[in-house]
Amino acid sequence: QVQLVESGGGLVQAGGSLRLSCTASGRALNSDNMGWFRQAPGKEREFVAAISWSGGRIYYADSVKGRFTISRDNAKNELYLQMNSLKPEDTAVYYCNTDPRSSYAYPWGQGTQVTVSS
């Protein structure tokens, strides 16, 4: 059973930065195209960013383009999301999983809470 574990969230003022991490137990992610997602209170989960297994292809939601950077370290079995210039509307629980264009997804982890104060 694959278990995804997200970490690195917290409370930050608008304009600040955070770096999220995702790792998996039970499976190496180095052959998976992976992504970050978020869910704000009262809203559906939405796509944030994705990266191919090699790191060679990356794409972002328009709302975070230019502010967030997705990356991965396959040797460490980790996925990252560097978030800069944070806005209050970025407040959400952030999750990692496979690229939404993949034909499969792993069970969702607990996510990590990001709260941006104005």
Task: Describe the protein.
- The chain has 118 residues and is mostly beta strands.
- The chain contains no helices and 10 strands.
- It has strands spanning 3-7, 10-13, 18-25, 34-39, 46-51, 58-60, 68-73, 78-83, 92-98, 112-117.
- The chain has a 6-stranded mixed beta sheet with strand order 2-10-9-4-5-6, with no helix packed on it. The chain has a 4-stranded antiparallel beta sheet with strand order 1-3-8-7, with no helix packed on it.
- The N and C termini lie far apart (40 Å).
Question: What attributes characterize this protein structure?
Answer:
mainly beta; six-stranded mixed β-sheet; 0% helix
> Largest sheet, if any?
6 strands, mixed
Please state roughly what percent of the residues sit in beta strands, choosing from under 5%, 5-15%, 15-25%, 25-35%, 35-45% or over 45%. Answer: over 45%
Number of strands: 10
Give the quaternary arrangement of the chains: single chain
Estimated helix fraction = under 10%
How many alpha or pi helices?
A: 0
Gyration radius from CA atoms, angstroms: 13 Å
Order of helices and strands: EEEEEEEEEE
Distance between the termini: 40 Å
- Physical arrangement of strands within the biggest beta sheet: 2-10-9-4-5-6
Give the overall shape, derived from the CA principal axes.
globular
Uncertain runs are none
